[in-house]
Fold this protein.
Amino acid sequence: MRRVSIFGATGSIGQNTLDLIRRDPAGYDVVAVTGGHNIAQLAQDAVAVRADLAVTAFEDRLDDLRAALADTGIEVAAGQAALTEAGARPADWVMSAIVGAAGLAPGLEALKQGATLALANKESLVCAGALVLETARQNNARLLPVDSEHSAVFQALVGEDMDAVERIIITASGGAFRDWPLDALRNATLKQASAHPNWDMGQRITIDSASMFNKALEVIETREYFGIFPEQIEVIIHPESMIHALVGFRDGALMAHLGAPDMRHAIGYALHWPDRRDLPVARLDLAQVSQLNFRAPEDARYPALRLARDVMAQGGLAGAVFNAAKERALDGFIAGRVGFLDMAEIVEEVLTRFQAQKGPLAGLIDAPMTLDNVTQTDHLAREYADKVMNERAG
Ligand code: NAD
Ligand code: MG
């Protein structure tokens, strides 16, 4: 039996992970499951997989969780420190599927105890790529990509030498607004941004897909995970979401990874790696698909992609600033405080001030990448983004 933990179990990736695990109850011993405010879901999942421990991220929900799991024998805990402690519980395989920078600390703990970390939480690599990779290396722990594009690249690279790689092309569906006229975007509503044409995902990543911030994070994730130069990474709009990524080699060959848009593929690949096992995903019927389309992303429509290039050029803690500002701008959009196009402008403003070494982030531009520095940068960048939003509102 393999000992597994699922961080962010109540979310979209978490539920897909549990779906695979529940199909083979004899195969897994579930150590910990974690969630947020959705206590009923967390309790139900903890019971269904007979987890040892259930953790909610929010301390004020501990009593609810305790009540929901009374008499089950399942241990309960709450808060960020409890999440980190859960990451340190011995496990063979850990799914990192918390949304946002909050996923970083528990993931690092899992790596420190030598677990294989299946990384859906792309924010970990955006905020602290070097730290995550170094922690994995020092502890002989393996990091496996779960983002569909990065899983696709990882699979296309099996048996290949990185020296033979010329470029990596990740595909983007283009999100909810890919066919909207540009001038209509300013008035896009939360409801419209929360409907993805191809994938069924959590609300935050769905909105990030509409703004292309998700792809911007993924370009940085590609750079960090595969260690290639920014100019070797390309993004192409592919509305059908059937090719997830392509690797171009020095002989001109392109290896593409195709599959139905179902995250259980990437999760299952990371769960069973280095083997391949049967997965309950739809099989593509290419005759029925009949054609696949591609087009270049327009710069004017997707400023987030340009910002990702700036972040990669800056390096260091710029990724943590970028992600934190993006998270706050997204909070603002969800709360109805800022418009859809304002998000990129807010992030750019915070990044520009960081790069100009102005304001409270000034001293951090050359700071070494430790968890403390990443956390401090994250906090300050959030405050800064709030300040920028207030200035714009006033
Ligand atoms: P989701 O919103 O559906 O679920 C998020 C999970 O994180 C929930 O369990 C929630 O309770 C928990 N959570 C939220 N805030 C938290 C906090 N402050 N501290 C601790 N836990 C918290 O999100 P999702 O769509 O499943 O995405 C999870 C991660 O996977 C994200 O990093 C996302 O970018 C990545 N990802 C998702 C998909 C997808 O198809 N959904 C695909 C690729 C990558
Ligand atoms: Mg992706």
User: Anything to note?
Assistant: The domain at 316-393 is CATH 1.10.1740.10 (Rna Polymerase Sigma Factor; Chain: A). The two ends are 58 Å apart (CA to CA). Residues 371-393 form the longest helix (23 residues). The pocket of magnesium ion (ligand 2) is lined by residues 147-149, 218 (CB under 6 Å).
